[in-house]
Design goal:
Strand order of the largest sheet of chain A: 5-4-1-6-7
Structural class of chain B: alpha+beta
Number of domains of chain A: 1
Order of helices and strands of chain B: HHEE
Distance between the termini of chain A: 71 Å
Strand content of chain B: 15-25%
Helix content of chain A: 25-40%
Shape of chain B: flat
Oligomer: heterodimer
Shape of chain A: globular
Largest interface: A-B, 52 and 39 residues
Mean pLDDT of chain B: 82
Radius of gyration of chain A: 19 Å
Strand order of the largest sheet of chain B: 1-2
Number of strands of chain B: 2
Low-confidence stretches of chain B: none
Number of helices of chain B: 2
Amino acid sequence: MSIRSVTWRMGSRPEDVNDLHVSSTEELREVFYEIEREWKMSEYYKQLETALTAITTSLVLDKVIGLALGSLVWETRVERDCIIQHALISAIESILLRCGVLSSSPPCRYVQDPAYTQQDKHVLCSAGFTVLEDPEAFLTMDNSSVLVSIAPNIPVMQIVADICRPGVLLWMRKPESPRPLPPATSW
Amino acid sequence: MVVSRSRYLTLHRTDPASPRVDKMLENEYYELKFPFHESFRDLVMYIRKA
């Protein structure tokens, strides 16, 4: 399959969006870069820049850590959402470096997910990520971190609350608290 | 400790908030809007207060 088969655009999800397959590391690398490139040209990316440049803080941070962003491929099928989540890490690093919220050195993009295959690791490393093995992400995390955690299968919020205070937290919005039950009525 | 993804973004079963997390966020962070995207759904951004 050629990279040119990626004909869909951000914001539209045709039926075959999940039918993108790769058979080699090189193909995956090309797909990864193509999806990231398209995403960075999307209207969403402009919204992301606006959101991140709204950060007004005296904090100076030095790393972005992505947890549980998933494998880039399920068997041979490209996981588009997971690739975009990794692209989000790169975008955050790039935009926050430009804003001065992140310091410029050392290189500071970390990701950890035990689902990564060797193929994933090769592609991610070539894209500038440092792939951490469990439990290095929690050991690396500190008050100078930007943490991105999307749908993990462990209680990341609880662990973070116990170990440090990252400068920026980006995780899923919790659901509204359920309404309290009315007082019991005695009969 | 193994951290991986919940396959269908069913976060709140595996990474629930708690009074301890709520207290940390309310006392030590402020919230900024983060745009919704179909690939990572409804994220929220917290910035630590200086």
